[in-house]
Amino acid sequence: MQNVLAIWQREMKSYFVSPIAYVVLTVFLFLSGFFFYSILTAVVQSTMMQGQFGQGAQSVDVPGIVSRSFFGTMSVILLFMIPMLTMGLFAEERKRGTIELLLTTPVGTFQAMMGKYLACVTFLVIMFFSSGITMSALFIYGHPELKPILGAFLGLLLYGCALLAVGLFISTLTENQIIAVVITFGVILVLWLIESFSTGASGVSKDILNYLSVIGHLDDFIKGVIDTSHVIFYLTFAFVGLFLTYRSLESMRWKG
Amino acid sequence: MIEVEHLSKVYNGRKAVDDISFKVEKGEILGFLGPNGAGKTTTMRILTCYMPSTAGTARVAGFDVFEESLEVRKRIGYLPETPPVYPEMTVESYLNFVAKIKGAPSNQRKSQVDDVMGKCSIGDVRNRIIGKLSKGYKQRVGLAQSLLNNPDVLILDEPTIGLDPKQISEVRTLIKSLAGNHTVILSTHILPEVSMTCDRVVIIHNGKVVAMDTPDGLTHQAKGAERIALLVDGPKEAVLEKLQAVDGVVSIQSTGGENGKPVSFNVECKLDTDLRRTLASVVVTQGWGLLELKGVSLSLEDVFINLVTKE
């Protein structure tokens, strides 16, 4: 455990001494702020128009609509950000030869992997907290329901954990960060778009494709419904990613 | 302390290490000598549990590197070919990190880090970013890292590469001072380094052990005698007789001399004698033609080159 902590700590420090953390955070906050603003104005305008056309009697849950579309957008932004967080984790270690240090000290492959994985998960949590700044506007000017928002954050976190595990695995495959980031992005995009392939399919294959879509499992969370099957989906996904990472690190030793 | 038996490693169908066996006693410094690509790094990587072997066994401090790798890893300090440093960290925080992952007790960490910084004379750059340091400093940071947590066995892959002559001699002194408490394996292709620091030398070539001896033994083998080569135009038997009569000559081999051609002699003389003058005058005063005369000296380098270019 101490080893995992040491690796985690080093990884967190290295995020924040390199420009990566700041660039990712800045871009993420800018994009999420921008989309939050445009969603908000769009929703407010449409409700005002409804009011003008005399339909104002029924109340509209503005914060609810805003937060739902905002979380949908966030999941897409994360799709672009997550490869940046994982690209260097092992690729950089391999390039610098520090992997030889990690794997010849009493730190096991598993501990090294977990330290790194937890570091990128922590970074994701930091990103969520910082995006809470934009969300706070909803609480200041309205009374949104807390549960769906927390549910959505939980869903995004699980979704993030799954994608980070994929990224971590791909980072073990190459010494080059650019290659790692591009492949990770490609793989995540496929996992995201898989749902749209399912429209042409039918029967079991349609179900399978639908099931594999990483983003489809997020819908319920954003509506505030925490369904264990979705939780299990993301956790399994993360587990498979980590398992592949572990195997890949071990096989790297055999190949030399 | 280290026992290697019939170790082999195959990658991509090529035998990088081919049936190597050797032993290192506790407190000994073993030099690993060989041209680039001979299999030095691969052997070291197997010993440090970085990669498994294809066949054979290796034991460090009585533990098998494959079966009981954790126990082995607790007892070794390893400096790979390129120092395994994180360029964005400061020297001190890096060494702290390594001390942590090597399992140094938290109350000893600071003193250990100070200690290795002192040993490798990098205390003056402790707060500098490693990425900004010169090659020599990086190398010494790498060496300092390997000494952390006082390992029984040190495995150093070309420890003096990239250092200036003064630093090289400092590092050699440091390595020598480590013997006794630590068992050291170091690889190098610098020959004087071996004769200066190592108790024993293993020369490997193409993945095979081609020689194993003390540096003195190898030098002795090379310098067992002074040799002088002569090419003389004269009657073979008579020349041989005259040369053999010279004081200090141990033995003579002769070749050639058929059909009145010049004869070449290979004269072996006692150590620390120079008989070139005497031999020349013996030949010349008899009226024979002295066509060539040269001293043949074998250095450790010649032994090395002979061994690695045999095939």
Describe the structure.
The complex is a heterodimer of chains A (256) and B (311). Chain A is mainly alpha-helical. Helices cover 84% and strands 0% of the residues of chain A. The longest helix of chain A is centred in the N-terminal third of the chain and has 35 residues, at 62-96. Chain A is globular and about 75 Å long. The mean pLDDT of chain A is 87. Chain B is 35% helix and 30% strand. Chain B has helices spanning 40-47, 69-75, 91-101, 106-119, 135-147, 165-178, 191-197, 215-222, 236-244, 276-285, 300-308; strands at residues 2-11, 14-24, 29-33, 55-60, 63-64, 76-79, 153-157, 183-188, 200-205, 208-213, 226-233, 249-256, 263-269, 289-296. In chain B, strand 7 (153-157), helix 6 (165-178) and strand 8 form a beta-alpha-beta unit. At the A-B interface, helix 1, helix 4 and helix 10 of A face helix 2 and helix 3 of B.
Layout of strands and helices, then pairs:
The complex is a heterodimer of chains A (256) and B (311).
Chain A: H1 2-17, H2 19-52, H3 62-96, H4 98-104, H5 109-141, H6 146-171, H7 177-197, H8 203-212, H9 219-222, H10 228-255
Chain B: E1 2-11, E2 14-24, E3 29-33, H1 40-47, E4 55-60, E5 63-64, H2 69-75, E6 76-79, H3 91-101, H4 106-119, H5 135-147, E7 153-157, H6 165-178, E8 183-188, H7 191-197, E9 200-205, E10 208-213, H8 215-222, E11 226-233, H9 236-244, E12 249-256, E13 263-269, H10 276-285, E14 289-296, H11 300-308
Parallel strand pairs in B: 3-8, 3-9, 6-7, 7-8
Antiparallel strand pairs in B: 1-2, 1-4, 4-5, 9-10, 11-13, 11-14, 12-13
Helix pairs in contact in B: 3-4, 4-5
How far apart lie the N and C ends of chain A? 27 Å
- Shape annotation of chain B: elongated
Strand order of the largest sheet of chain B: 6-7-8-3-9-10
Task: Give the tally of β-strands of chain B.
Answer: 14
Terminal Cα span of chain B: 33 Å
Described by the principal axes of the CA atoms, the overall outline of chain A is: globular
Helix-strand sequence of chain A: HHHHHHHHHH
